[in-house]
Design brief:
The chain has 233 residues and is an alpha+beta fold. Strand 3 and strand 4 form a beta hairpin.
Length: 233
Amino acid sequence: MAASSWNKGFTKETHPSVMKISRTMRRKGIDNFKRWRDRMRHLGKIPASYSPFLPSGDFAEYIGVVLGDGNISEFPRAERIIISGNSKNKGFVRRYALLTRRLFRKRPTISKVWNKNNIRISLYQKEISKRLGIPAGNRQNASIRVPKWIWDNERYVIRLLRGLFEAEGSLSIHQRTYTYNLQFSNRNSSLLQIVGRGLKTLGYHPEFRTTSTRLRKKHEVEKFLKQVRFRAY
């Protein structure tokens, strides 16, 4: 049986010994990776600066999935983005790992959460929050806005909604009563309003609840599923 890695389950910030060394070096102003970073920048392997993302369908969808089920964390020299999903949903993982790589031009890390059916697509880079236009940290009570360029283009609205519903959408159909319920669930009220606005822009008639925005008419649910290609990988 292979031995477990010494740092399994830990990061630099959570391992007690490594964290202490890191804080001591930070306090003394010691940067033992400076020479390496300077050499990588000279070779072009680490960008000296990052260009903003240009408007596109991929960018609009990525904003949606990050707002729905993503998180951005800040660290001293970089930021980390994590998109969480069900490890059984291979299509979701492939799709958003690919979009992450396209946008950031860097291969993300895909890791399964131990003892859970949860998988994380993660990547470290600078200025992630600024370039995505999404605040870092907990967004539960944040006032969220979507860029104007998305609202100005119906195709981008469709892609935004696909990302949002892929992250936090659910579909239930009760065949005996012909009851349809497609809903986006979230505790952020401004995000629920964004979903509602997007649905109305496309001609739908959403219902609003405290923690969800949903479609209940069969013909609208069926049309929307095809229009955004919901869970079609």
